[in-house]
Amino acid sequence: MSDNKTGKTVRKWAGLVAALCFATGVQAEIRIGSTVSATGFASYLGEPEAQTLKMLVDDINAKGGVLGKQLKLFAYDDAGDANKARTFATRLVEDDEVVAIIGGTTTGATMAIMPTVQEEGIPFVSLAGAIEVIQPVRSHTFKTPHTDRMACAKIFEDMKKRDLLKVGLISGSDSFGASMRKQCLDIVGDYGITVVGDEVFGPTDADMTPQLTNLRNKNGVQTILSLGLGSGPAIITRNYAQLGIDLPLYQSHGVASDAYIKLAGKKEAEGVRLPGTPLLVAELLAEDDPQREVALRYKKQYENMAGKPVSTFGGYAHDALYLVVNAIERAGKAEPAAIRDALENTKDLAGTTGTYNMSAEDHLGLDLSAFRMLEIRDGNWKLIE
């Protein structure tokens, strides 16, 4: 018998034993897995995700757990490396025997995890932004962040309102930047907006003044849109100020955190607009806003624990964990197939990112109304009405 067949046989018997234990009340814990980019180039995304998952699991367990059982979190740091993410996903399934996985901080890591969860039948809630994560729909993959296509739409709506109809693009060459660029180019014409310049930057580039100079010199350019993750967008913002470019600057939802403002500089980031989640402006939300209560509660809990401002990306992890917990509670059992089915039927679950309504055709369950257009003013986030 091949090693592959042997492994599958062992896992099959392990699954039968686990099911028997559950049925007889022997199982004492519910195993949840995670692999996020707690270190590496995407650590400003992954670190708050890792901290959030641990904090919330501890809190849930202190309150009695789920279905009367304690959650056990098996957490790994893939440092944004797709190969590591794939390896950890396999380990979570084969060695740790988890019933669900949360993670994939970056699009690349998520795409590496997806084949494993699909083959093994384990529900997976991704924390990455690209639309490719959920289109086409894969039966076992879900996600919490808005898609890059939705972010493009939100940005272009705002540009159109301001009569900014000629835009220069500067995109990261990584999977997130490339995907969002593709989505923005696909729908920009729907808003009567023309792309007059299209530049790219690499993940290790330390100076984007050549690309920005090219865009500034394009005939009729009225605004510039930066699409990227990591330090690149902050460098662009600083270079923008150094060049004295007097045009509105937009960034993507990939930098919706205080870490971006800190990296870019309070003065340099003044006036930058981007789409973000209700979490960043929780105190400014209307009293009857369905996200207000959950966002304020998580914000207070996270900031008390971490001693630093709440992060949009930690909010994605918050929503992912509660999607899984809610699914387990509704299913009445912590079995992968039942969790998957319950996730797909999630209705009216308010999170920090939006209110989730999933279906067999939609494994995100958010619409454009969940996005808020934000502007940085005096180092803080302001809600643009």
From TrEMBL:
The keyword Signal applies. The keyword Signal applies. Pfam families: Peripla_BP_6 (PF13458). Residues 29-365 form the Leucine-binding protein domain. Residues 1-28 form the signal peptide. Gene3D superfamilies: 3.40.50.2300. Keywords: Signal. Belongs to the leucine-binding protein family. PANTHER family: BLR7848 PROTEIN, LEUCINE-SPECIFIC-BINDING PROTEIN. This is ABC transporter substrate-binding protein. The lineage of its organism: Bacteria, Pseudomonadati, Pseudomonadota, Betaproteobacteria, Burkholderiales.
